[in-house]
Specification:
By secondary structure, this protein is mainly α. The chain has one domain. It has six helices and no strands.
Length: about 140
């Protein structure tokens, strides 16, 4: 098993403001997904979005996006960065599903977790495909 080394995530070659921006984007997206996952009710506009797109589509988009953001922010240099991004996304989704056990009106859902994993898997495959296309173009 290949672990991430400091050199592979070292941001010393990245200007400080870009490293902070990446961290901010990850933190913001994680907070947004966490907020949406742990609420028992939503403001009108967001509830309309749920009614229009459905929970399944939103779960898929949230966790595929989270996987891409993890990869973009921290793991682009790692050979198996797409797998680590997938691992972090699935772990976060599982943690939020478990946390829902203590939220009135919410419950743990294997269906939600399965859709999260599907979004993560397709995002990871997309990352691999994109990396492959970039290699061919060089």
């Amino acid at each position: 098993m290949s672990f991430i080394t400091r050199e592979e995530i070292d941001t010393s070659s990245v200007p400080f403001h870009r490293a902070v921006m990446r961290l901010f984007v990850v933190a913001f997206f994680m907070a947004f997904v966490g907020y949406m996952s742990l609420r028992s009710s939503y403001p009108g506009v967001i509830q309309d979005l749920f009614n229009t797109l459905g929970s399944v589509v939103l779960h898929f988009l949230a966790y595929s996006g989270l996987t891409v953001i993890y990869f973009w922010a921290f793991l682009r240099r790692h050979a198996k960065g797409h797998l680590w991004a997938a691992f972090f996304s699935i772990s976060y989704g599982l943690a939020l599903e478990v946390a829902q056990l203590w939220i009135p009106g919410r419950s743990f859902s294997l269906g939600d977790l399965a859709v999260n994993c599907l979004g993560v898997a397709l995002a990871a495959m997309g990352i691999v495909g994109f990396k492959g296309l970039r290699e061919v173009g060089k």
